[in-house]
Write a structure and sequence with these properties.
Helix content is about 50%, strand content about 15%. The protein is built from ten helices and eight strands. The radius of gyration is 22 Å and the shape is elongated. Bound molecules: NADP nicotinamide-adenine-dinucleotide phosphate (NAP).
Length: about 260
């Protein structure tokens, strides 16, 4: 059986580690630089906690679930054991792993955080590899983790990553700003929860064009003007609001001024 060593103790390591164990793959341990973090994750996964600076157990696949900026350093410090070495970053090339003859990428298209272990069964797993050895190991693991597996080269991964940031991260930032406005009125942030829940569900079912409502979609310029007045003390958010509204009106053929 393919032995997997996971390096990193953050959000990706927590969720991917859980998915690896849950899918019955052989996780030999979790290595990290922070003692407390690696012991906590190892306890949660019921696997060995490993010190990144000490000799590591044998593995066929080493997954670097570390910050994008650390991938090169961690990879360069890893002994060349013949294992396939992969990182988990959507927008990063494979050249950072070039010290290892067989290398690649295993990127789940999902926003991952601590707290609740996630079922990755329908999370798209993107695989990229520098050759057949890494490709077959990574495809095998990806297919164990999820029913949705695809192979994408760097240029496409970067575009998918951009699309994911637009869809998820930037949208969540807007939710955060919306909650801030509620808090300023001493209202519970949960007031908007049914709205964003049903919005996400409708986007998934009917698509964005059918889901989009609101003043810009209707071309209600007076309402938009009133919202912009309410944002006069918040010029940055006002710019974001005006620009997004203009884009929506253009897309739906309303005149924008
Ligand atoms: N979270 C997501 O939603 C998500 C989704 C898709 C892909 N990814 C990718 O997953 C990878 C990890 O992201 P993450 O969200 O798990 O980040 P994270 O929660 O911030 O965790 C980063 C991990 O990297 C470790 N690290 C940073 N610098 C290091 C170094 N020089 N040497 C050793 N370990 C180092 C950190 O250790 P310390 O705690 O000691 O700093 C921590 O364990 C990234 O490549 C990211 O692009 C993340």
């Amino acid at each position: 059986m393919t032995r997997i060593l996971l390096i990193g103790t953050g959000r990706m390591a927590y969720q991917l580690g859980h998915a690896i164990v849950a899918s019955g793959l052989d996780l030999v341990g979790v290595a990290g630089r922070d003692v407390e973090a690696r012991e906590r994750l190892a306890r949660f996964l019921d696997r060995k906690a490993l010190d990144l600076t000490r000799p590591l157990p044998k593995a066929d696949l080493v997954i670097l679930a570390v910050s994008d900026d650390a991938i090169g350093t961690v990879s360069a410090a890893l002994p060349r054991t013949g294992a396939v070495v992969a990182h988990t970053a959507g927008a990063i090339g494979m050249d950072l792993l070039k010290d290892h003859p067989d290398h690649g990428v295993l990127w789940p298209i999902q926003s991952l955080s601590h707290g609740q272990p996630m079922d990755m069964g329908d999370v798209p797993m993107v695989v990229d590899a520098n050759g057949e050895v890494a490709r077959s190991v990574l495809l095998m693991v990806a297919n164990k983790l999820s029913e949705v597996v695809l192979e994408l080269p760097l240029e496409q991964r970067q575009r998918v990553h951009l699309a994911a940031v637009l869809t998820s991260n930037l949208t969540v930032w807007l939710v955060r700003e919306g909650q801030r406005l509620l808090r300023e009125q001493k209202l519970p942030t949960s007031l908007l929860t049914p709205l964003w829940r049903s919005t996400a569900a409708r986007v998934a079912t009917f698509g964005p064009d059918q889901t989009l409502t609101g003043p810009a979609r209707r071309g209600d310029k007076e309402t938009i003007g009133h919202h912009l007045e309410l944002l006069t003390k918040d010029p940055e958010l006002s710019k974001v609001y005006a620009l997004l509204s203009e884009q929506i009106m253009k897309a739906f053929a309303h005149e924008s001024r």
